[in-house]
Amino acid sequence: MQTTSKSFTPTPEDLIIRGADIVFMTDDGSKFHVHAYFFTRESVYWQQKLTGHNEPHHPLSKRYTPNDPYIIHDVDSHDFRKFLRVFYNMRYGVEDSISL
């Protein structure tokens, strides 16, 4: 558990969604205030990590805040932001095209 006494000051790399109940921090220090529901709804991995249970309807087992975020290792903010587009379309109706 990481605790700091500094107050949180958002940077342009941070993503803050109103009503968010969890803060993730990537390896490069960017913070993402998002809804844990999207992580626990479909993933047993995240259900266990965030709630300690195998069902999506349990509350978070810990409060992750800007000063004590859930740290995601081996992920940078660019990749995590791209992943979050699955849940949060930043530009409604405009999707990135992908070549397979």
From TrEMBL:
Pfam families: BTB (PF00651). Gene3D superfamilies: Potassium Channel Kv1.1, Chain A (3.30.710.10). PROSITE patterns: BTB. This is BTB domain-containing protein. It comes from the Eukaryota. It comes from Agaricus bisporus var. burnettii. Residues 20-96 form the BTB domain.
